[in-house]
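Key idea: predict the complex, not the pieces.
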Amino acid sequence: MPDNPLLRMKEVPDAIVCEGCDAVYRRVELRRREVSHCPRCGTELDRHPGDQSARVLPLTVACLILFAIANLFPIVEIELQGLSSQTTLAGAVVALSAGGMSPVALLVLATTLLFPLLQLCILFYLLVPMHYERRPAGFDVLVNALVALRPWGMIEVFLLGVLVAIIKLSSMAQVIAGPALWAFMGLTVLLTAVLSFNPRTFWELAFEPRQGQGG
Amino acid sequence: MSSDPTIIETAAAQRLMACHHCGTTWQGAADGEACARCGTRLHARKPDSINRTWAFLVAAAILYLPANLLPVMITKSLLGTQQDTILSGVIYFWVSGAYGLAALIFVASFLVPLFKLTALVLLNIMAQRRSSWRQLERAKLYRILEVIGRWSMLDVFVVALLAGLVRIQGFAEITAGVGIAAFGAVVVLTMLASLSFDPRLTWDTMADAPAQDMTMDNEPI
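Result:
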């Protein structure tokens, strides 16, 4: 007999479950800058969102601008006996796939270009209507995509890779840093701030006050 | 928060399930049912966590060999063709006096994947045995793995950039070797392995097992 899951499933709004060890605690109101950790395993339980939700939108826009600069201009240029060569991120991806390394090219393309861009676009698309307290179409799919994409954006690792490559080349050629290198540095800093915004907060913003509370 | 941290009630024992996406706690939900708030499927534990983790770990361990033995980078210059593996790149930096850089690449490309593989094997064996050995240390180990795993991609990016940049025909040309594909696969597979591992299994010990079989519905908290 099919039953209505909504009648059976009941939200327990004052419970918080540790993701690291499944321990159940009573949810407490956190003060500004407060973070609660599970006393058993040490995993972070909850974090005060602060005024982050107000700051994330401008930071996202700044990230998108830097992202454009980082990808449209060359990252580095080398000069060797009067000959020069330069590359953008996309140029490196194309060179990899031309050299028969399409899976690696795809991996680099996804982790440094597609996924971070997708994360920024989703954030922008969600944050603008939510500023006017509207829930945009596809809200649940996009918030979940944001959570799933999180481990796979690797701009900061790429920046370190660029620096290593520059040092590697500096012994055999003259290396000139391109505008994209500075953009990548700025992007790494800003992206860290943007991605520290927990996508879970979206659910709290969308359902404020929590369902089942005050009832 | 519970006043006495030594008395821990787990959600599984209380028949509660928390949605891993939106964090909402539900009572009376069946495993595999959709979260009424965000639509994600609810699971008391990640489904088939131990087997999936094993599968990714075995695949990563197999590819670890070609990743370290095959050349990751081929340099063609006026002096001839040179093939570099991950470790020969480290040795090159060390010999040329860039000790810090050599250490950085050695740690990111060689030690971190190896450490990740062995640590996940250990965590998975212990979880499979429902062992209560050093649970807190195992929980900390898992959190460290989640942070450091991504940095192994460093060498993939270095090779990608060098292949894109150094293309001066006749003078110097760098192309990617097969090893880098295997190496990238190892990094992705170990990341998938640590994502499919459920840290809660570390705390599901023998002592907790009967609690999960209870049919009585408890009141939450």
